[in-house]
């Protein structure tokens, strides 16, 4: 599924117009499709109000109102900001009247069961003007089902800012042609409710898309009957200090359960004995950090990771450089994510910051990052020729050429110390087993979130801990591989 910017929608509309479509017909299709999408959510005797603005978002509301009224729904179409001012919306209002349909006066004292927001769409500039704010806050105070058309009024298509938190708080949003970036940004994303896209019959395609289960299945490596431990490569993870052994254990769990043939943990003596009791399959490079700084990389390593459970230091920086120089695909996490002018490497480098770490890398505030995380991750990836996995709700994966994905899986069960360590292990392991590093990164992130979704089918998200991945990964991977 593709994700769009406002200018892409305008371009797509423009192309359609050049091919003989009219805006009138696009709005007609939009209104009719919205009607079909909304039918399962509303009942004939619900008191429904459509709040129509003066632009084409309001025009969609006029068409939707016609379809609902023709089908016998109890609908009031109102224009609390004044009558339409775009040509297409005016034409649709004329046609609406020709069908003997009526509009109502805006009366905030009236009570409704369903409020449909067609006030502003992708033509919004923020902040909202006072007259819109009043209607939005009235809507949010009502005990009604709230449905937004295209985007909730008060958010923009491309950015996550919501000045003063004043936006229509939708239970459902139906986005025309495709979902917009702000659905996945913060705080805007919290206003959309359940979001679905509504096709208006135009061609799909964008440089930003959502990872699909089908794509993960299609790119997941087959395990042939003739395969042996060498087939799936040896992974190396530099992790853990005596006072943070747990992170190294969790990275080892993530790696060993995700397919790698062999796993070498570069760590301290003490951490090695802790890992060995939970992941007996692991082998060790003792005094790992120092030995890698000295250029000692064990043989046959096909994928590496550095960072879980270690703090930023000169030797971590040095070890990261040695690994980057080796040409082995490298995941750089936690303590190894340090600000540097270049990430020049001979192989792919994958950075896995959470917003706090990305803030330290870029010097931007966490708020700024959350409101624009897609473009910021993409910009960093392109500028530094690295892959950025910006973690959080809707993890963003940006590749060095600008190709960018949003991960749809996961829930608050992942918002726990240690789940990032597991992810690092998983990415390393999948790098070892996949031919294409991009597929490895996308698949690891998707499966990591899927584990949390599987957990929440039976248990509370509150109770999930990172060590649960030990038993969740087999279930998640079975769902991916089952149809192979
Ligand atoms: N292919 C498609 O997806 C189609 C989508 N359609 C719908 O069209 C809208 C976009 O329509 P547009 O007319 O460009 O814009 P809007 O309806 O969002 O808004 C324009 C009006 O909003 C006023 N405005 C903007 N910002 C503010 C603000 N902060 N406070 C108050 N009012 C604001 C603006 O007024 P100005 O006086 O500032 O110009 C406009 O009146 C899209 O979202 C879809 O719903 C089409 O139906 C067809 C194809
Ligand atoms: K809207």
TrEMBL record:
Binds 1 potassium ion per subunit. Bifunctional enzyme that catalyzes the epimerization of the S- and R-forms of NAD(P)HX and the dehydration of the S-form of NAD(P)HX at the expense of ADP, which is converted to AMP. This allows the repair of both epimers of NAD(P)HX, a damaged form of NAD(P)H that is a result of enzymatic or heat-dependent hydration. Catalyzes the dehydration of the S-form of NAD(P)HX at the expense of ADP, which is converted to AMP. Together with NAD(P)HX epimerase, which catalyzes the epimerization of the S- and R-forms, the enzyme allows the repair of both epimers of NAD(P)HX, a damaged form of NAD(P)H that is a result of enzymatic or heat-dependent hydration. Its EC number is 4.2.1.136, 5.1.99.6. It holds the Pfam family Carb_kinase. Its cofactor is K(+); Mg(2+). AMP binds at residues 391-395, 420. (6S)-NADPHX binds at residues 56-60, 121-127, 150, 309, 354, 421. K(+) binds at residues 57, 117, 153. InterPro entries: Carbohydrate_kinase_pred_CS, CARKD, Nnr, Ribokinase-like, YjeF_N_dom, YjeF_N_dom_sf. Residues 9-208 form the YjeF N-terminal domain. Belongs to the NnrE/AIBP family. HAMAP family: NADHX_dehydratase, NADHX_epimerase. It catalyses: (6R)-NADPHX = (6S)-NADPHX; (6S)-NADHX + ADP = AMP + phosphate + NADH + H(+); (6S)-NADPHX + ADP = AMP + phosphate + NADPH + H(+); (6R)-NADHX = (6S)-NADHX. GO terms for biological process: metabolite repair; nicotinamide nucleotide metabolic process. GO terms for molecular function: ADP-dependent NAD(P)H-hydrate dehydratase activity; ATP binding; metal ion binding; NAD(P)HX epimerase activity. Keywords: ATP-binding, Isomerase, Lyase, Metal-binding, Multifunctional enzyme, NAD, NADP, Nucleotide-binding, Potassium. This is Bifunctional NAD(P)H-hydrate repair enzyme. Residues 212-480 form the YjeF C-terminal domain.
């Amino acid at each position: 599924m593709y994700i769009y910017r406002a200018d892409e929608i305008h371009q797509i509309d423009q192309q359609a117009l050049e091919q003989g479509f009219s805006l009138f017909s696009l709005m007609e299709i939009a209104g009719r499709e919205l009607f079909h999408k909304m039918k399962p959510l509303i009942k004939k005797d619900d008191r429904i109000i459509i709040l129509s603005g003066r632009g084409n978002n309001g025009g969609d509301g006029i068409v939707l109102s016609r379809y609902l009224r023709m089908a016998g729904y109890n609908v009031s179409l109102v224009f609390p900001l004044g009558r339409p001012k775009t040509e297409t919306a005016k034409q649709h209002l004329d046609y609406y009247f020709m069908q003997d349909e009526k509009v109502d006066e805006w009366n905030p004292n009236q009570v409704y069961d369903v409020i449909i927001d067609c006030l502003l769409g992708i033509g919004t500039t923020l902040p909202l003007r006072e007259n819109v704010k009043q209607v939005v806050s009235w809507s949010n105070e009502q005990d009604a089902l709230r449905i937004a058309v295209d985007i909730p009024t008060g958010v923009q298509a491309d950015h996550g800012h919501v000045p003063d938190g004043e936006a229509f708080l939708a239970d459902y949003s139906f986005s025309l042609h495709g979902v917009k970036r702000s659905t996945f940004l913060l705080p805007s994303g919290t206003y959309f409710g359940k979001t679905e896209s509504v096709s208006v019959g135009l061609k799909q395609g964008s440089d930003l898309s959502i990872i699909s289960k089908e794509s993960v299945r299609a790119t997941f490596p087959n395990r042939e009957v003739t395969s042996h431990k060498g087939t799936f490569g040896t992974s190396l993870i530099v992790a853990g200090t005596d006072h943070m052994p747990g992170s190294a254990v969790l990275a080892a769990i993530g790696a060993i359960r995700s397919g790698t043939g062999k796993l070498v943990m570069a760590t301290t003596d003490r951490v090695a004995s802790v890992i060995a009791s939970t992941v007996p399959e692991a082998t060790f490079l003792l005094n790992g950090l120092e030995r890698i700084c000295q250029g000692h990389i064990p043989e046959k390593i096909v994928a590496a990771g550095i960072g879980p459970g270690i703090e930023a230091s000169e030797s971590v920086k040095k070890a990261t450089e040695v690994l980057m120089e080796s040409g082995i695909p490298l995941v750089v996490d936690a303590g190894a994510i340090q600000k540097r002018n270049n990430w020049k490497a001979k192989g792919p480098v994958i950075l896995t910051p959470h917003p706090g770490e990305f803030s330290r890398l870029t010097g931007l505030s966490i708020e700024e990052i959350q409101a624009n995380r897609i473009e910021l991750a993409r910009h960093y990836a392109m500028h530094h020729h690295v892959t950025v996995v910006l973690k959080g709700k809707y993890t963003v994966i940006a590749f060095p050429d600008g190709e960018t994905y949003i991960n749809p899986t996961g829930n608050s069960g992942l918002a726990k110390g240690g789940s990032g360590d597991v992810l690092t292990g998983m990415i390393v392991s999948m790098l070892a087993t996949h031919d294409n590093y991009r597929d490895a990164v996308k698949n690891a992130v998707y499966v990591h979130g899927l584990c949390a979704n599987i957990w929440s089918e039976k248990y509370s998200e509150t109770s999930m801990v990172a060590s649960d991945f030990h038993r969740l990964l087999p279930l998640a991977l079975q769902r991916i591989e089952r149809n192979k």
